């Protein structure tokens, strides 16, 4: 059945060649019979043409069948052998291979993304239980031992902030999948945006005994980025700086330094916290990697810096991190400046 169908497909694909062949030879035979020699036998010439046609078509059918078989093998992810295909056949096979490889890459990407999403949700659900359990313990302790409302509310506020932070991380993670739909590049004032983010975290600074220091010789630093995605990235980096500052004994600064280097603007965020181990430093942008610091911080999900690195990559902002244990961590983000003329130095 397969061979009959293959033969029918072959004849259909070669119908034009067949018609052209026989019509042209019929015309030549008629011309020879009427104008050159009347003794030429038309059937004899036609039998020669038919013989040549059959030989030609047999070789073509073998080639056609072999190529068809190779194309069918591509559906099973089997690489074809290097044979003498025609340019048209080779172009078709190459196109199919390219489509197949693209499909395999996209399938692998979707599978990886699904696995990451599943792992993230599992870990996120597990981590969400911790602040809820703590809140429950605070309420029970307040009821049984009469703990002061102010103290209880303060602890509940801290756990609420942790839950809010984890919810934001989850939303950012899922929005990354639709980044292109939500991407709107524009020129923004980096200093103004940074100040807004710093002010929004006032309570976190107070609770963690740290304070911000902004170092910038300019009032207007115009850079090209997506305002919302850039803010999401900076919020996560600043939250990490606050969380790992370890400012229990004395108040510590978080320094924000902005400088221009030609057509580029570099934002540096530096803390004086616990730092990151050299072994962990090269893996901090991997999804779900928490390292030694994360294991000491039970609410760490290992997703924050991964999301930051993905946002930075999609925005086209190189992201670098340097750290020494016990001395702090510095994160640098490089932006493309809008125009040098848009940077106005502050008076005095």
Layout: helices, strands, pairs:
Blueprint: H1 2-13, H2 15-36, H3 42-74, H4 87-145, H5 149-175, E1 186-189, H6 190-200, H7 202-207, E2 210-215, E3 218-220, E4 222-225, H8 227-243, E5 252-261, E6 264-271, H9 278-281, H10 291-296, H11 304-315, E7 319-324, E8 328-337, E9 344-345
Parallel strand pairs: 2-5
Antiparallel strand pairs: 1-4, 3-9, 4-8, 5-6, 6-8, 7-8
Q: What is the approximate shape?
A: elongated
Radius of gyration: 36 Å
The CATH architecture of the largest domain comes to: 2-Layer Sandwich
- H/E topology pattern: HHHHHEHHEEEHEEHHHEEE
Multimer state? single chain
Structural class: alpha+beta
Taking the sheet with the most strands, its summary is:
7 strands, mixed
Number of domains: 3
- The CATH homologous superfamily of the largest domain corresponds to Histidine kinase-like ATPase, C-terminal domain
Q: Roughly how much helix do the residues carry, as a percent range?
A: 55-70%
The helix count comes to 11
**Mean pLDDT reading:** 78
Q: Determine and state the CATH class of the largest domain.
A: Alpha Beta
Under CATH, the topology of the largest domain can be stated as: Heat Shock Protein 90
Poorly predicted spans: 340-348
Strand fraction band?
Answer: 15-25%
Number of strand segments: 9
What does this structure look like?
The chain has 348 residues and is of the alpha+beta class. It folds into three domains: 2-84, no CATH class; 111-182, Orthogonal Bundle (Helix Hairpins), CATH 1.10.287; 184-348, Heat Shock Protein 90, CATH 3.30.565.10. It is 60% helix and 15% strand. The protein has helices spanning 2-13, 15-36, 42-74, 87-145, 149-175, 190-200, 202-207, 227-243, 278-281, 291-296, 304-315, and strands spanning 186-189, 210-215, 218-220, 222-225, 252-261, 264-271, 319-324, 328-337, 344-345. Strands 1, 2, 4, 5, 6, 7 and 8 form a seven-stranded mixed β-sheet that branches. A two-stranded antiparallel sheet has the order 3-9. β5 (252-261) and β6 (264-271) form a beta hairpin. The longest helix has 59 residues, at 87-145. Mean pLDDT is 78; it is low at 340-348.
């Amino acid at each position: 059945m397969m061979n009959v169908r293959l033969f029918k497909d072959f004849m259909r694909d070669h119908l034009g060649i067949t018609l052209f062949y026989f019509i042209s030879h019929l015309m030549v035979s008629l011309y020879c019979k009427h104008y050159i020699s009347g003794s030429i036998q038309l059937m004899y010439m036609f039998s020669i043409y038919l013989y040549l046609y059959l030989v030609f078509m047999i070789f073509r059918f073998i080639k056609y069948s072999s190529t068809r078989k190779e194309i069918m093998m591509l559906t099973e992810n089997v690489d074809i052998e290097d044979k003498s295909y025609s340019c048209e056949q080779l172009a078709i096979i190459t196109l199919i291979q390219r489509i197949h490889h693209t499909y395999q890459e996209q399938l692998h990407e979707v599978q990886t993304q699904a696995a990451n999403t599943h792992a993230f949700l599992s870990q996120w659900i597990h981590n969400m239980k911790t602040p809820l359990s703590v809140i429950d313990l605070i309420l029970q302790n307040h009821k049984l031992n009469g703990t002061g409302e102010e103290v209880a509310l303060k602890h509940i506020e801290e756990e609420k902030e942790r839950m809010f932070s984890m919810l934001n991380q989850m939303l950012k993670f899922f929005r990354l999948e639709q980044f292109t739909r939500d991407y709107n590049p524009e020129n923004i004032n980096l200093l103004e945006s940074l100040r807004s983010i710093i002010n929004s975290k006032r309570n976190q600074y107070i609770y963690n005994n740290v304070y911000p220091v902004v170092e910038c010789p300019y009032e207007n630093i115009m850079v090209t980025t997506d305002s919302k995605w850039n803010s999401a990235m900076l919020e996560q980096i600043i939250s990490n700086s606050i969380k790992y500052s370890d400012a229990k004994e004395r108040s510590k600064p978080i320094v924000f330094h902005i400088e221009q280097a030609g057509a580029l603007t570099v934002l540096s965020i530096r803390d004086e916290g616990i730092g990151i181990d050299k072994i962990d430093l090269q893996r901090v942008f991997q999804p779900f990697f928490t390292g030694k610091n994360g294991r000491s911080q039970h609410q760490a999900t290992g997703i924050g810096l991964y999301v930051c690195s993905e946002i930075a990559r999609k925005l086209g902002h190189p992201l670098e991190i340097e750290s020494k244990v016990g001395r702090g961590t510095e994160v640098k983000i490089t932006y493309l400046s809008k125009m040098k003329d848009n940077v106005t130095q502050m008076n005095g």
